């Protein structure tokens, strides 16, 4: 039992006595002050005011005590997601370990190809390439043709074809795909490899990847730069839009490579039976993908990418959307599969010991792949080479790559690397303006994905015509796609202490979340005895945002509510601290690899907080509602839709819908609030509709750009919900007092 000190003092002296001190004599006043001071000393309230530390996990004080078990809360979400993905990979490893014969491996290859088609498809039609040569250069020993072709209708790919001089017969060709460089194949380190290959007699076709070189997807002519940032950010920005429709942006990179090979096979200088692919970093990604999917690739040499997903997760994590397959690990795909599916075609894995792509993972993958090639009877067709270096090319590795292609594409010669004069960036500019977006009236990934999303959204709209049938199905699909899981048997929470405030206390709890995670939670409980209604109060900026004395949470407590304010994973104390070079959407990528979502996990954890409240003696278990503010809104919306015991919901500044993100080129939302693949089955308004007849208040819903939605936008998105829910849905476009909204929600 907590005893309120100010009430205790008042009882000792009498409130009238204290209020009437001006009527006392000086001696009486002095006596009263001494008595008061002595009692305050006994109660330990004299001294500087208490500074509240409302952190739960790590103390929040670098000079104070830290809980060892909870000392790195910012990585808790990522550790959990990594564990989920590793569970998927464990099933794959078990399956691969049982393969003993070539026939068993062939069956595995068929399965992998079908799975890659499922992940990456549907593949576009092979439309006309419409190639054009925009310029020619003649150099010492070779010539260059600057090429533009269309891998899809009006989807332009820029590249340069390097042709050795004096060809009298078709030669082997190398498709050179490029890593994350702004200037793409024009950069000196890429030119070095290209020029060495062409001087050794290979035809080399270097192409610009999406978001690089002359193919910026979000180019702003006024600044001459991308509006979203670096190549990695361009890939991830468009990638999130693709993932919402259940597709991987990797498809675009692969298809560009496939169509580049289509173009090579039309050239009289090229022997179509001797095609190779190589690239570094993101180019290593692309070359491993293209080599796995296109069976015309005789020899492939991915450089500086291949490791293993488990080691990738344990080191730097997924780097951008290009390198993430939608549900890849869940469907049993690891880096090794990209090479094993080729067996026994010649394959070279090029690595460096100090790469940020784990060398340990690279060696483990190489051992598995080598075993597969042995079973196929051709161990000599696979090799892993490595040099002592960081992320990049080395002379030793380059020479191994040259020798590999010379051997297996039947073009013998010296593998020694030579220095050749580089071309200028201006010489290798393909389009008239330097960017396809300004040189041609063309498509980009956004416009193609938006068009491909249209039939999904139309089917969704059609399904909403019969809500009695649609809503249960949408709810079931929301649970599946978000990866929502009903909480297991409750684990005891951990009490971390409390602070006493006037009329109520602030308790600090570690509430067990999914798996081994802990949700740092503050509980604001009135001192007056009895059971009362409770509120789950979740803020996208963290639990302490409205927790100060005199703040919004205190207003609710003074109206008699018990309020639990947790930090859901990825928010508040558990925010993932992005390191330089890391993608700000990594947890979203981590989650979708295993068929889960941060929003779905957060939804399950919100239900755990509800159960925690239900087990308290001061809470009425059948009178619990929820308030969500900001980016956590979609998670609480999922939770309330899945869990009938959450009686009502208030959403403030929450995302209006997912479809606006795929329908607008630029957006600015927290990817952790999104569910990959959702638009194939449901959107946030469907969850709102499914909550009725419980009440929901939506205040200042946010657009794809985090702006307050207009009445027209609200009507377009929520019109069918308003018709269905009638007076059980309240939408406010202006800031509204929370107490009034809660009163409306709990009214009979």
Automatic annotation (TrEMBL):
Residues 144-303 form the Acetyl xylan esterase domain. Transmembrane segments: none annotated. It holds the Pfam family AXE1. It comes from the Bacteria. Gene3D superfamilies: alpha/beta hydrolase. PANTHER family: ACETYL XYLAN ESTERASE DOMAIN-CONTAINING PROTEIN, DIENELACTONE HYDROLASE DOMAIN-CONTAINING PROTEIN-RELATED. This is Acetyl xylan esterase domain-containing protein. It comes from Rhodopirellula europaea 6C. The lineage of its organism: Bacteria, Pseudomonadati, Planctomycetota, Planctomycetia, Pirellulales.
